[in-house]
Amino acid sequence: MPSPTNTDMTIGSGLVDEKVNPRIVLAVLWICHFILWIFGDMFALAQEMSEPTTDTSVQFVAPTTAIVLTLLVAYNLVGRPARVRLANLVVATLYFLLNIGFFVDATEGWEYYLGAFYVLFNVLIVWRAYTWPTRSQS
């Protein structure tokens, strides 16, 4: 039996486990940092614009959603394929529902425009995770 190559690595699930370049890992970690930084700036700006957020559920849920996004970006690179696939299917579906909820509260055109891309990316993530190549497909 030949030794596995870079693109032929599988773990018990039969899903292909491609190796990721360390440069990509570092870039993704910076993207995670940037996502959190943007969220923090937006949250601080909302506080400064006389829109104080006193609802403790918002103060917990809003940062948690940003943190989950950043953790998932990094987990996609280092997790086992079957678990990464499942995490993407579950989290993207939850974010899809959350983003549909944002459409209900949207009042400005840009909110609908941005929301459409949120939903589009959620659908693309679910589709890509669902169609993850298996060893028999590669």
Can you characterise this structure?
The mean pLDDT is 78. The chain is an all-alpha fold. The chain contains four helices and two strands, in the order ββαααα. Helix 1 runs antiparallel to helix 2 and helix 3 (81-105) runs antiparallel to helix 4. It is globular and about 55 Å long.
Key traits:
two-stranded antiparallel sheet; mainly alpha; 70% helix; 138 residues; 2 strands; 4 helices
Tell me the number of strands: 2
Q: Describe the main β-sheet briefly.
A: 2 strands, antiparallel
Classify the helix fraction into a percent range: over 70%
Kindly report how far apart the N and C termini lie.
Answer: 17 Å
Would you identify the regions where 5 or more consecutive residues have pLDDT less than 50?
none
Strand content: under 5%
Strand order of the largest sheet: 1-2
* Average pLDDT number: 78
**Structural class, please?**
mainly alpha
Tally of contiguous helical segments? 4
Measured on Cα atoms, how large is the radius of gyration? 18 Å
How many structural domains are formed by the residues?
Answer: 1
Written as H for each helix and E for each strand, in order along the chain, the element string is EEHHHH
Shape: globular
Question: How are the elements arranged and paired?
Answer:
Elements: E1 10-11, E2 15-16, H1 22-48, H2 56-78, H3 81-105, H4 109-130
Antiparallel strand pairs: 1-2
What's this, in brief?
This protein has four helices and two strands. By secondary structure, it is mostly helical.
